[in-house]
Specification:
4-stranded antiparallel β-sheet, TACO1_YebC-like_2nd/3rd_dom, Arc Repressor Mutant, subunit A, cytoplasm, DNA binding, Alpha-Beta Plaits, single chain
Length: 237
C-alpha cells in the first residue's frame, strides 16, 4: 500500500506547486458540484467532498465563494463530466477526468497530449478496470491503531489503515467518505493533509529512465489542459 500512497503524495506535491492552475480547476469543480444540487454542503454531498478536498490544497475562500455564488446565479453554463482512458510507454495506463463545455475540443486536446508524447487513447473500459475508486484520508496525531478503533466503534469498515513517516492513511469506500471523515473529526482529528476520492491502481509498473521521462512529459501535457481535472496512472514514482 505504501507505493500507492507515495504516488498520491507526489501528485499532491506537484499540484501544491501550481497554485493558480489548481485554484482555477477547483473553481470549476466547485461550481459544477454546487450546480448539481443545493449550493450547500450540508445537503449536497458532492459539494461537501469537493470543499473538503479544496481545504487540503488551501484553496482561498474567495475562489470557493465565487464558484458557489456563480452556481446560485442564473448562468446557463453547462459542463459535462468526461473520462478518457489511454496508454503510455511500456504498459503504462492513464485515466483522465475532465469537465468540459465543449466535448469536441476536450477530446481533441487530450488525444493530442497522448499522441505527441508516445501514448495513445483507448476505448472506454480499456484501463479503468485496473483501478478502484477509493476514499483516501491522511492525518497526523492519530496512530493507525487509534484510527482503526475509531472506525470500528463507529461501525465503519476501512479497506486499509496504515502509517508511514508519522502520517496515518485510511483507504475506504467512496460511499463512506463523509461518515469516515465525520467519525474522525468527532474524535479530535482537526486537519487532514489528504481528504479526497481518488482512483487507486491495483498493480503498479516500473519504467526505465527514458520511458519514465517520456511518460512524465505526457502526464504534464495532460494536466496542463484547462478542461482536465484529474489524471491517474499506474506508474511507480
Amino acid at each position: 500500500m505504501g507505493r500507492k500512497w507515495n504516488n498520491i503524495k507526489e501528485k499532491k506535491a506537484s499540484k501544491d506547486s501550481a497554485t493558480s492552475r489548481i485554484n482555477a480547476k477547483f473553481g470549476r469543480e466547485i461550481y459544477v458540484a454546487a450546480k448539481s444540487g443545493e449550493p450547500d454542503p450540508v445537503s449536497n454531498s458532492a459539494l461537501k467532498v469537493v470543499l473538503e478536498r479544496a481545504k487540503t490544497y488551501s484553496v482561498p475562500k474567495h475562489i470557493v465563494d465565487r464558484a458557489i455564488d456563480k452556481a446560485k446565479g442564473n448562468t446557463d453554463e453547462v459542463f459535462e463530466e468526461l473520462r478518457y482512458e489511454g496508454f503510455g510507454p511500456n504498459g503504462s495506463m492513464v485515466i483522465v477526468d475532465a469537465l468540459s463545455n465543449n466535448v469536441n475540443r476536450t477530446a481533441a486536446e487530450v488525444r493530442t497530449a497522448f499522441n505527441k508524447n508516445g501514448g495513445n487513447m483507448g476505448v472506454s473500459g480499456s484501463v479503468a478496470y485496473m483501478f478502484d475508486s477509493t476514499a483516501v484520508f491522511a492525518m497526523e496525531g492519530k496512530t493507525a491503531d487509534e484510527v482503526l478503533e475509531i472506525l470500528i466503534m463507529a461501525d465503519l469498515d476501512a479497506r486499509d489503515v496504515f502509517e508511514e513517516e508519522g502520517t496515518t492513511i485510511v483507504y475506504a469506500a467512496p460511499s463512506d467518505f463523509s461518515t469516515v471523515q465525520d467519525a474522525l473529526k468527532a474524535e479530535g482529528v482537526e486537519e487532514f493533509s489528504v481528504a479526497e476520492i481518488t482512483m487507486l491502481v491495483q498493480n503498479e509498473v516500473e519504467l526505465d529512465d527514458a520511458s519514465k521521462e517520456q511518460f512524465e512529459k505526457m502526464i504534464d501535457a495532460l494536466e496542463e489542459l484547462e478542461d482536465v481535472q484529474e489524471v491517474y496512472h499506474n506508474v511507480e514514482l
